[in-house]
Amino acid sequence: MPQRQTYIVEHLDPELGQWSELEYIAIAQETQQRPGNTFMLSSLPDGFQVPEKLAQIPAFRAEKRGVEDVYADAKDRVCLLDPQAEKDLNPEDKREFDVFLFGGILGDDPPRDRTSELRKKGFKGRRLGPVQMTTDTAVRVTRMVIEEQFTLNKIPFVDFPELKFNDHESTEMPFRYVTDENGKPIMPEGMVDLIKKDADKSIDDLF
User: Fold this and answer.
1) CA 5, CA 140: separation in Å to the nearest integer?
2) Phi-psi region of 53 (alpha: psi -120 to 50; beta: other; left: phi over 0)
3) How far apart are CA 146 and CA 59, in angstroms?
4) 95: CB partners within 8 A, 6+ apart
5) What pLDDT score does 1 carry?
6) DSSP 197
7) Which residue from 22, 61, 64, 141 has the fewest beta carbons nearer than 10 Å?
């Protein structure tokens, strides 16, 4: 029987920005492609409104409890994706973990170490390399390593890609992305339009 994977983002904020909404929908849609897998938002505050498009994806689950409560009796199955971890995630980790935990703030620029709150709860950590990723990219990379058995050095990446909107407008994204077969960064549907529309804002304002 195929091993089922659960991908969890601890969403600590009372609101959901447009950027995060697009990321979460992309994560849920990709998770849905492997039967039995789950994408969970945990630690959701009271009154948190799950967007309808996200709620309609069968692989998605909303959870008010924190991950330490959900997996109180199985903490050793949970892998925290932690930029400060000593070991990189590798295909062998599939034998040890089937729950993968993300702080939900991997896409902050500059990175804020809110993952430390989860680290203090005693979860084992793995790193996804030295360069900051968006949350959907981090989940995508984890899925490629665990489900498809890529090593990190075999995944096609692009760092800090420039998005050109026209001859006069462009912006550099301060993150690492997985690339598609054409060498273009894989981003959630609608993300480029969101960035273009808000080109005068900082990246921080879009979360």
Assistant:
1) 13
2) alpha
3) 18
4) none
5) 43
6) H
7) 64
Q: Which amino acid is at 85?
A: A
DSSP per-residue codes, 47-70: T----HHHHTSTTEEE-SS-HHHH
**Cβ-contact 32, 63 below 8 angstroms:** no
Can you tell me whether residue 196 is helix, strand or coil? helix
Do residues 170 and 163 make contact, with C-beta atoms less than 8 angstroms apart? yes
Task: Name the CA dihedral angle for 25, 29, 32, 37, rounded to a multiple of 10 degrees.
Answer: -50
What is the maximal distance between C-alpha atoms in the chain? 56
- Phi-psi bin for 69: left (phi > 0), alpha (psi -120 to 50), beta? alpha
Contact 7, 41 (CB under 8 A): no
Helices (H), the chain: 18-32, 52-55, 67-70, 115-119, 135-146, 191-197
State what percent of residues in the chain have pLDDT above 90.
Answer: 71
pLDDT tens-digit map of 114-154: 677 788 888 999 999 999 899 999 999 999 999 999 999 99
Q: Which two tokens stand for residue 141?
A: 């990379």
For residue 53, count other CB atoms closer than 10 A to its CB: 14
| β-strand pairing of 6-10 with 38-42 | parallel
